[in-house]
Amino acid sequence: MPAGRPKTFDAEASMPTIVRLFWRDGFDRLTLDQVASELGVTKPTIVRALGDKEGIFAKALKAYYQVHIRPGEKLLETAPSFRLAIQGCFQTAVERILDANNPQGCFLTDVTLSGAFTEGPVADTIVTIQNRTLSLLQARIEQAIADHELRQDAEPAAVLSYILSQFAALSAASRFSQTRPRLEAIVSYMIEGLPWSDS
To answer: Which one, out of 18, 27, 31, 76, has a CA that is 20 to 30 A from the CA of 56?
Structure first.
């Protein structure tokens, strides 16, 4: 009997699985053989479609960004107030944490804090994502001060550092069993900690 046709590999459809595997196991522990087995294809098939392991990892980070970070960035660009923009950004993190299909923590934060990538496609991807997010946050903070949403004496760099630290705290909180009411209470405390204007 003639051999069956090889399974067609849909790189785009496979990316959520690839993201989940790298997010859960990390770059060093996960092998492309394991990825191939999970997807039901061969390692050469994956390499032909997506490149080497580091290139695939970079693509996984980009896919993670589009699903879990970009929605928050859009709120920074479009929300009618700074409070609504920040609430929306924190809420995207809450939804990520509560989704049982997601591993614990923040994929991007975990990779960044590991310090394992100082050059190459992964490092370039991290820098590109971080620069974009930081630029949007910085601009929205400065606008909030100009619009008197935040106090006029608020230091933009300090506000930015505070917000970033709260995202890191949410990432840490995701490693423990959490409920929606508890997470939303945490977010409320985080938001109220900003230097809001009394006017």
So the answer is: 76
Residue the block writes with tokens 């997601």: 102
Report yes or no on whether pTM surpasses 0.85.
Answer: yes
pLDDT at residue 199, as a whole number: 64
For the domain covering 57-192, report its CATH number: 1.10.357.10
- What are the beta bridge partners of residue 196? 150
Q: Measured at the alpha carbon of residue 168, what is the angle toward residues 164 and 172, in degrees to the nearest 5?
A: 165
Residue with tokens 């970079």: 58
Contact residues for 43 (Cβ-Cβ < 8 A; gap 6+): 32, 33, 35, 36
pLDDT tens for 134-184 read 999 999 999 999 999 999 999 999 999 999 999 989 888 888 878 999 999
Quick check: 150 and 195 in contact, CB under 8 A? yes
One-letter amino acid of 40: G
